[in-house]
Amino acid sequence: MTNDYTISKKNRIRQLAEYAHYDRATVHRILDAGLVAQVGLIENAAAIVVPMIYGREDQTLFLHGARKARIIKLLAAHQDACVNVTLLDGLVLARSAFNSSMRYRSATVFGKPRLIESSSEKLHAMRIISEHSMPGRWDELREPWPRELKMTGVIRLDIEHASAKESASLPDDEEDDYDAPVWAGALTMTTTFEALVDDDRLQPTVEPSVAVRSLLGRKL
Question: 162 with 111: CB under 8 angstroms?
């Protein structure tokens, strides 16, 4: 296995190609940092995009939804799907609206979706998804009941093509605009887990676990 994804018509980045990455490490780093994936496919000649939670194991994404959900049924019936994860890191405030932009990390992957039918494989995938967003939490919780497994739909998508795009730039203004009396630069931002709010039926002696406390301050 090479360190780069094969470049094809599907994943080649043409606009701002200098920000493009095709190495697995960069793609995986962005996927692992995100929490919500935008999943795109075609239904009746019309494009649809649905947000889904997910987890990654090696070259496989697991996408989670209700077993009867429209998106699960559609993905199970399709030969191809596209998944994007984008993280916004700030605004680039240029001296013109045209040259203003954003700082971001984005990964787009393509693959063939498959509905997981096996209970053992589904349970494994559910653990991967849970540990992606809440590391260490799975082992603190009870095992899913059989009816919960039955109600859950998990799609396995083996990554065939992928690309990433990252920008942490400052404004790239027109030469004539640099003398304008307008502030320019970057306005950075972070998405951070900030506070724990107790459930109103929490037992009075129960405290957050180490796994839960470790999420505080986590940045995407």
Answer: no
